[in-house]
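Title: [Solved] UspA domain-containing protein 3D structure

Original question kept below for reference.
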Amino acid sequence: MATKSIIIAVDNSKECFKAVDFVLEHFPKGYEYHLLHVQVSSIASELITDDDDVGLKHERPYKMDKELTAASEDFLKEYFLPKAQANGAEVTSTLLHSFPDGSTSIGSAICEFAEKTRPAALVLMKQQKSALKRFFLGSVTKFCVVHSHVPVIVVPA
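Solution (posted by the thread starter after getting help):
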């Protein structure tokens, strides 16, 4: 049984396989791997409803949230879990929800989860974004590096 854990924060991109590969290569034994995905909620957005949906204004966002959550859970189970379980380690996965206000809320959710579970490290993928995108959208990785109370390992893209 593993005595230490490592959180691997992933999104719905196959680029995050590099983070899983990094952990498997550098921390192959004695760790429990915890895959963490933060799903951004669409419920708070009024932009996704059409004028035709006047009577169903709030049902459509809830349905969309359920579909996005199911897709994220499937992605974790189909791609990330088997890869992380390849060396026989204990692997768990968690899907958290966050509001759509940018990288700050996603980063906060990751940092809060890490603070509660107290892993040996938090592993994140550095996404390749232009300076303009980083300025307007922010960076989840940067937020976690600055605000996390546990060590953060950043895997380059």
